[in-house]
Input
Amino acid sequence: MSLRFALLGLLDDAPGSGYELTRRFEHTLQRYAWHAKHSQIYPELTRLADDGLVAVVDEGARGRRTYAITEPGREELREWLRNPPVHKNVRNEEVLRMFLLSTLPAAEARVLLEQTAIEAERELAELTEVVRAQDARCGEEGLWFGRLAAEFGLRQHTATLDWARWALANLSA
Amino acid sequence: MSLRFALLGLLDDAPGSGYELTRRFEHTLQRYAWHAKHSQIYPELTRLADDGLVAVVDEGARGRRTYAITEPGREELREWLRNPPVHKNVRNEEVLRMFLLSTLPAAEARVLLEQTAIEAERELAELTEVVRAQDARCGEEGLWFGRLAAEFGLRQHTATLDWARWALANLSA
DNA sequence: CGATGCATGTAACGCGTTACATGATTAC
DNA sequence: GTAATCATGTAACGCGTTACATGCATCG
Output
């Protein structure tokens, strides 16, 4: 069900076609929150339109249909946000791998931890750039929530990096 | 495919039946890494046995079958760990919700952020207890990797808590 | 006029959830 | 004896991925 709300969220920001929403997914939600391919997005947009939560507001070249969120769609999205689920279903292969490091000899586990640290550093460097660019344009409307997401990523990666370093420091002992 | 490796990982720690593995899932991997229900676990164990990666080592009351990992199973698990995927597929409803907070009026977003902070605090308190207990039994074999996982959770929750507080502090401004 | 990118769709298959279904053992 | 827990299974459905399939528009 989350895909619907991811799409409604993107459309709440601005109208877009299936093709464009697929790109926006890649550039915004993909990294930390959610991912979906066009083969899933197109049918879901059709269903959302059938349910009246989005509407086609423009048709352009090459059969392009631009969708916009409707008022019922906005209300549906808000309702979803107001009622978080009690049980959180986590499924993160990255973390699973970390948990199963135990099954490797220490030397190999160490290599993987080092890779984890390096990747976290790289992501941190990228995100720091993003935040710097955002802060430079400080004050613009609608920017705040992109900043919120970036800050979240920043802190998650920092935590992972620190953890990997801590693990490496304690592994040899 | 990850379910296979989650099961192999649990069995690498100790043999167990489908029922028992379901419980172990709940108590170990569920929170941060992976979750699965018995209806998925039983058929997967059958398949793993068919592939020779696990074997039935005991049959007890009520049709209970205890499985153990085999040497080919161990090798398969190690190979999986040694070859992390290039593209990481994230799907985290929690984070998606945070990203879409923008669609709510500030006052409501604030309430949700406060709830996020409270939950992170609660989880932190729980985990801190776990770690304290672990450290008390320091030196035991096999404990280190449980400690590794707990430390990871500790740092993730701390990051989330700090982020929520940062967001609240900056939201009103 | 050919390559690239825009734009949409669907069919088959696999993974995951919910619900249904059954029965043995243990503790009170 | 009856309630709780142990213990296993399967069928139907929904979500997600891969692969197949098509054609228009733009740029050079």
About this structure: Residues 93-171 of chain A form one domain. Chain A is about 65% helix and 10% strand. Helices of chain A lie at 2-13, 18-27, 38-50, 71-82, 93-99, 106-136, 144-171. The mean pLDDT of chain A is 91.
